[in-house]
Amino acid sequence: MSNRNVTVVSHPLVQHKLTLMRDVTAPTSLFRTLLREIGHLLCYEVCRDLETTTVEIDTPLERMSAPKLEGKKLCFVSILRAGNGLLDGMLELVPSARVGHVGLYREPETLAPVEYYIKLPDNMDQRLCIVVDPMMATGNSATAAVQRIKDSGAARIKFVCLLAAPEGLANFVETHPDVPVITAAIDRQLDDHGYILPGLGDAGDRLFGTK
Ligand code: URA
User: 136 CA distance to ligand 1 centroid (A)?
Assistant: First the structure.
């Protein structure tokens, strides 16, 4: 898919780590570590255009003007539960970020998202909001979560995932053309159960060792 609002992070480190995660033999501990590490790398990419201001500081040698992040603290929103795996890595890079959570599960028959939890920081209208979920499959959860976040007043939103299916990405971009998507890969297709192919299986189960 070619869309100026979709960025595929083709950095070799991201691609290498993603390959290790896809491998069915990767144990839970490795999967978790790799997701956190990719969280660092995707965070670096999504924060590329954060605004900075200049402050005066003293180095041990002289006074200088130096750049510093400007504006209200940014907000990460994790879509439960697999979002927390990416969130951990991103918080290590931006420890002062505020954090929101949206809990959605997929209704097994229709794959429609059902919200069971939401908690967001205040002043969402003044923050850049970065929504994280490793898997954009049908795009239904991502689309619903972003709508709830918009309803809370957020005007600047970006979406970070590890894998996207073309069908889900098209759905998301059509509904939220104003929200840039940053992903490590766009896979081939969805299967009949809404899983991404070739994908990496159920990200939540692989992250937390549940089945
Ligand atoms: N959620 C997952 O964890 N994996 C998929 O392939 C699709 C949705």
Answer: 7
199 in ligand 1 pocket by Cβ < 6 Å?
yes
6-23+30-47+76-204 in CATH: which number? 3.40.50.2020
Beta bridge partners of 131: 77, 159
Mutate to test the pocket of ligand 1, among 167, 192, 200, 210 (most ligand atoms within 8 A of CB): 200
Question: Does 105 contact ligand 1 (Cβ within 6 A)?
Answer: no
What is the 142 CA–ligand 1 centroid distance (Å)?
Answer: 12
Give the other-Cβ count within 10 Å of 51's Cβ. Answer: 9
Question: Which pLDDT tens digits describe the chain residue by residue (211 residues)?
Answer: 557 799 999 999 999 999 999 999 999 999 999 999 999 999 999 999 999 999 999 999 999 999 999 988 899 999 999 999 999 999 999 999 999 999 998 788 887 889 999 999 999 999 999 999 999 999 999 999 999 999 999 999 999 999 999 999 999 999 999 999 999 999 999 999 999 999 999 999 999 999 8
Domain definitions of the chain by residue range: 6-23+30-47+76-204
In order of 50, 131, 181, 187, the CA distances from 99 in angstroms are 17, 10, 19, 29
Count CB atoms within 10 A of the CB of residue 129.
26
Whether this prediction's pTM lies above 0.85 is answered by yes
